[in-house]
Design a protein that fits this description.
Blueprint: H1 3-11, E1 52-53, H2 54-67, E2 75-80, H3 88-93, E3 101-105, E4 108-112, E5 119-120, E6 133-136, E7 146-151, E8 158-159, H4 161-177, H5 186-190, E9 195-200, E10 206-209, E11 212-213, E12 217-219, E13 222-226, H6 229-234, E14 238-241, E15 244-250, E16 288-293, H7 294-305, E17 315-320, H8 328-333, E18 341-345, E19 348-351, E20 359-360, E21 373-376, E22 386-391, E23 400-402, H9 403-418, H10 428-432, E24 437-442, E25 448-451, E26 454-455, E27 459-461, E28 464-468, E29 478-482, E30 485-491
Antiparallel strand pairs: 1-6, 2-5, 2-7, 3-4, 3-6, 8-14, 9-13, 9-15, 10-11, 10-14, 12-13, 16-21, 17-20, 17-22, 18-19, 18-21, 23-29, 24-28, 24-30, 25-26, 25-29, 27-28
Length: 501
């Protein structure tokens, strides 16, 4: 995985999840051609900001289904509830008890069948009822609905690599067909599907390749497996052993940094509470209960992101753990083992995905949980967090940028700096920094940055190469990152280069 190009898809918990359901356990049957008589369900849900207009969601559903092959296809489209109060493991294991999604209009209510995991399709309604609202019983994200791709698996619970590749090709064809004017489908159009997620009904399920268990990650009863072109060449089929529930085509970046947080279940701490240590439990990991408020820092995160979707930006803002006791090369090479950062409040705790190098974004929390504090396992300073601007690389045999895009990235950062109000004194250092180059970090010491055909670096720090922007160079000159690029960030190169005085 190229961290610099996919970090934000992995960490933006506020974006809807994309997944799908196995053909062997189809979605509840729904008549798309006839208006189904309303079911009396007497919706009495708690207030849910996730309510959506039926008409435009149904139009999007028809559009996306229409782009898929009508025969011999490998994937089917469905919607998914965007749960806000369940972690990924709980979402996959969720099963409806009574109604879960309903269509509600003037004098009209109709239940929508929902499968385990929160997957569903909207039925066709007569014209007079298409002004209805989609109501969710579970608390869901305001203004969002999850788009899902279910992978068709036969009764033998086997999948060829050719079938896996075909499924991803079908999804890419749908993405390419989505008109740019459909802003509501931007996340669907730009997501990078590169893995399958096989969810089982119990913890004993496994995915086999060549008779051996394989997994790039595990989330609850689900196994994540990235597509491997080399594996496709071997011809071994992928086998699913166990009571298979759902097989989905997903973005691996959404899952590779996810961790459960059982160790912090006993932490009870509201924002700005300066009290003592967390409750002791036999397996509780070391923690640093910070004075950092979730709500306060989340507001600053939104300001620095500028309200622009991550997929549309060349450079993105992220937080970074303010490490203690580590040199800069050690910080760049730091990899979390288990959870590293959590949000904790009264009777509540949730892990925050943290990438190699300590980069993270704060997820959106429901209003009732926004009094949480940040809790560090052991590496972070309790009084502050760092900030970073990560560049998205272009994909190719070698990830690359054009030289002029360094200027574009620096200009984007300056716009973010200029948008910081003077009254935010805590961001004064960030606002005043002079970003004038790139820092490219690699997984090992052999990584090289090529500008044109020449290896280029103004300084080396551990496995990272420092490249100061040179306005005299041609903007269309190619910069290639050879090796295993981990994070490419916009930096103030004065920190790394000898003083001119």
């Amino acid at each position: 995985m190229i961290l610099s190009s996919q970090l934000f898809i992995a960490l933006l918990a506020a974006t809807p999840a994309f997944a799908a359901q196995a053909q062997g356990r189809p979605l509840p049957d729904q008549d798309q051609d006839k208006g189904v008589p309303p079911t009396t369900i007497q919706v009495k849900a708690r207030t849910n900001a996730g309510d959506l207009a039926y008409d435009w969601v149904f139009e999007y559903q028809k559009l996306l289904q229409g782009y898929l092959p009508t025969r011999a296809g490998m994937v089917d489209f469905s919607w998914r509830i965007t749960f806000t109060e369940l972690n990924l493991t709980e979402q996959d294991a969720w099963a409806p008890r009574g109604w879960a999604v309903a269509l509600v209009g003037k004098g009209f209510e109709q239940d929508v069948p929902v499968a385990r995991g929160g997957y569903f399709l909207l039925p066709a309604l007569p014209l007079g009822r298409r002004g209805s609202t989609i109501m969710f019983r579970e608390q869901s994200m305001p203004g969002h609905i999850g788009a899902a791709w279910r992978l068709r698996i036969g009764a033998d619970q086997r999948l060829s690599h050719a079938g896996f590749k075909q499924a991803m090709d079908e999804i890419r064809a749908v993405q390419d067909a989505i008109p740019l004017r459909y802003a509501g489908l931007e996340q669907v159009r730009t997501s990078r599907y590169d893995a399958l997620k096989a969810c089982f009904l119990d913890a004993g399920g496994t995915v086999l390749l060549g008779g051996r268990p394989v997994a790039d990650a595990r989330v609850g009863n689900c196994v994540l497996l990235k597509f491997d072109p080399a594996g496709a060449a071997d011809g071994d089929a992928i086998e699913f052993k166990g009571a298979l529930d759902v097989v989905t085509v997903v973005e691996s970046a959404d899952y590779l940094h996810y961790v459960d947080l059982p160790a912090l279940d006993g932490v009870r701490r509201a924002a700005h509470d300066a009290g003592g240590a967390p409750e002791a439990t036999p397996d509780t990991a070391p923690t640093k209960l910070s004075h950092l408020s979730y709500a306060w820092n989340f507001k600053r995160q939104l300001r620095l992101q500028g309200g622009v979707p991550a997929q549309e930006r060349l450079v993105n803002f992220v937080w970074r753990i303010a490490f203690e006791g580590l040199s800069e090369p050690e910080q760049d090479a730091w990899t979390p083992r288990g959870w590293a950062l959590a949000l904790a409040g009264k009777g509540f705790s949730r892990a925050v995905p943290v990438a190699r190098g300590g980069y993270f974004l704060l997820p959106t929390l429901p209003v009732g949980l926004q009094e949480a504090s940040l809790v560090f396992r052991d590496q972070g300073r309790t009084s502050r967090i760092g900030a970073a601007f990560v560049v998205r690389l272009r994909e190719g045999p070698r990830p690359y940028l054009y030289y002029g895009e360094i200027r574009d990235a620096m200009n984007a950062v300056r716009k973010m700096q200029d948008a910081i109000p003077d009254e935010h004194a805590e961001l004064a250092t960030l606002r005043a920094a002079r970003y004038d180059g790139l820092k490219a970090c690699f997984r090992d010491a052999g990584g090289v940055v090529f500008v044109g055909d020449m290896p280029t670096a103004d300084a080396t720090v551990g496995n990272c190469r420092i490249l100061r922007f040179d306005p005299a160079r041609r903007g269309n000159e190619k910069i290639e990152f050879v090796g295993q690029p981990d994070a490419v960030t916009v930096v103030d190169t004065a920190r790394y280069l000898p003083s001119k005085s």
